[in-house]
Amino acid sequence: MVTVKEVGSRVAAVPRSVSVLAATGIVRPYGPRRLARLVHAITHWGIGPAGGYTSLAARFPDEVGLIDERGSLTFGQVHRRTNALADSLAARGVRAGDPVAIMCRNHRGFVEATIAVAKLGADVLYLNTAFAAPQIAGVLAREQPVVVVYDEEFTDLLVGVDVDQRLLAWHDSDQPSEPTLEQLIAAGSEEDREAPEQASRTVILTSGTTGTPKGASRGSGSLDAAAALLSVIPLRHRWTCHIAAPLFHTWGWGHFQISFLLGSTLVLRRRFDPQDCLETVQSHGCDSLVVIPVMLQRIMQLPPEVRSAYSIDTVKVVAASGSALPGDLSQEWMDSFGENLYNIYGSTECAWATVATPQDLRLAPGTAGRTPMGTVVRLYDDEGRPTPEGEAGRVFVGNSMLFEGYTGGGTKAVVDGLMATGDVGRFDPTGRLFVEGRDDEMIVSGGENVFPQEVEDCLARHPEVVEAAAVGVADADFGHRLRAFVVLLDDAKTGEDDLKEHVKDHLARYKVPREVRLIDELPRNGTGKVLKRDLDRD
Q1: What is the distance between the terminal CA atoms of the chain, rounded to a whole angstrom?
Q2: Are residues 24 and 166 part of one domain?
Q3: Which of 41, 99, 366, 452 is at 20 to 30 A from 310, Cα to Cα?
Q4: Tens of pLDDT along 468-495?
Q5: Identity of the highest mean pLDDT range in 146-160, 193-207, 222-236
Q6: How many domains does the chain contain in total?
Q7: Integer Cα distance of 478 and 94 in angstroms
Q8: Sequence-ordered list of residues with C-beta below 8 angstroms from that of 4, at least 6 positions apart, any chain
Q9: Is residue 11 domain-shared with residue 120, that is, in the same domain?
Q10: Are 375 and 495 within one domain?
Q11: Residues 452 and 408 in one domain
């Protein structure tokens, strides 16, 4: 339980955070009764999922808080339903500190399972819906959850996995093979619960692009973390937000967390489709849209007449994160949909580190932006020494969102209290960060350092290129060269030599790929990152 004194001390310690939160409309006057219910919710439950929805039910019990393919729920309904679900889970033996795995797409089941588990003080482990069966089995064997909550479509991925209890969150069959969340909600008590002795924790898995997914453990969030993002991105109180990014990913989860404070009405869809995304935003009059960059790419690949058939003028903020914005994607998006794009750079381990505003993206395309309040980003060389001004270095971050360590043991490298992101970048004279690539992807070609991302961006700017990726391969003359993999438009006439010439015209000769392979699509994981390990290096 959080005491009134602790709440007061936290607020007193972060006056700038309070000022930012006030500007969003979060800090506002309430009537005596509503204020009393709000203070009770926060002091008993904190500001995580349990406290967030308890406080929202106290403030806006009859207002719509969640919309998915099965309809809408008010904040009051979500609060009562999650009370009932928590009651049923407790009856099944779930206790504070127990790990509960959730493998769901974006829908009410994900949200309600998260809140109910938090109301018990149990810990939430989010499983990536794009992982293969061996990855899922490995993670579950390591984390040992007492319950797995999953969507019926993932049943085959859990065959042979030893888990005490299985619950279905979303099912389309008439006779589901396991108990469902709806059945547990119907059987449980909707009465308010007592706060547990310990707060729920969250474990988010790394993407697994370079190895076995690790579990990154986090607390339930903080006002400082929310204020840092809101100091740059102008999200506002009671907006309607379509979170298209996966909720199990740090970026989707982060906006889910912020929605507790903002009182956002969340609009969710189980699967992303570019045209359906535009339709969803238009039909619900969404104020904000949360995406990963590949989603923007897919929308921009729609025929112009399809894009122009939808009006998304209600959208003030399009928040993108998860991977770099390739080529001129930011310019193309804003040319079509207005100056509403914010690009956020970070990682599972450090959350958000820098934010690029629409102005930043116009003036310096490709930038990762500047640090928000309460955040420090510094560059160090391989020996842990600060790099000279203007030179590239390993990116290290300090903020209130750094993770607590991997559940299997270990952490990221730390220098001067700052945590490594695993990237290399440089600052321009105005303080904008440019991320040049992963520190383990750099190759030395003819004695020169080459990062694939610069070449990928150059290729992506070719008018007939949809997307591109590059990897280092051995070369008898230069030591290493890049091999590029390129997806072209269906009616493209461009060939390998044309693409090499395009790179040669824009970059140094040693950055020209040794070869270019034309493929139908790039392999990606569930959060849109390219799986370079699946590209042919032979």
Answers
A1: 57
A2: yes
A3: 366
A4: 999 888 877 677 888 999 999 988 899 9
A5: 146-160
A6: 3
A7: 59
A8: 39, 43
A9: yes
A10: no
A11: no
Mean pLDDT value across residues 149-168: 93
pLDDT-derived band at 146, boundaries 50, 70, 90: very high
Question: Is the same domain home to 145 and 104?
Answer: yes
Q: Nearest to residue 190, comparing CAs of 35, 80, 25?
A: 80
Nearest by Cα to 148 from 171, 115, 178: 178
Using alpha carbons, select from 450, 465, 454, 445 the residue that is nearest to residue 521.
465
CA distance 497 to 412: 41
Residues 320 and 343 sit within 8 Å (Cβ to Cβ): yes
Q: Which domain range does residue 288 map to?
A: 240-438
Query: 482: domain CATH number?
Result: 3.30.300.30
509 touches 538 (CB < 8 A): no
CA–CA distance, 38 with 113 (Å, rounded to integer): 22
Which contiguous run of DSSP H or E holds residue 269?
Answer: none
d(CA 373, CA 133): 41
Q: Which two tokens stand for residue 335?
A: 């040319």
- Are residues 459 and 432 part of one domain? no
Helices and strands (H, E) in the chain, number of each type: 17, 24
- Cα–Cα distance measured from residue 371 to residue 356, given in angstroms and rounded to the nearest whole number: 9
Cα–Cα dist 286/305, whole Å: 22
Query: Which of residues 200, 232, 267 is at a domain's end?
Result: 200
Contacts of 74 (CB under 8 A, 6+ apart): 60, 61, 62, 63, 64, 65
- The candidate with the shortest Cα–Cα distance to 53, out of 42, 107, 126, is 42
> Which are the contacts of 178, defined by CB distance < 8 A and separation ≥ 6?
166, 167, 168
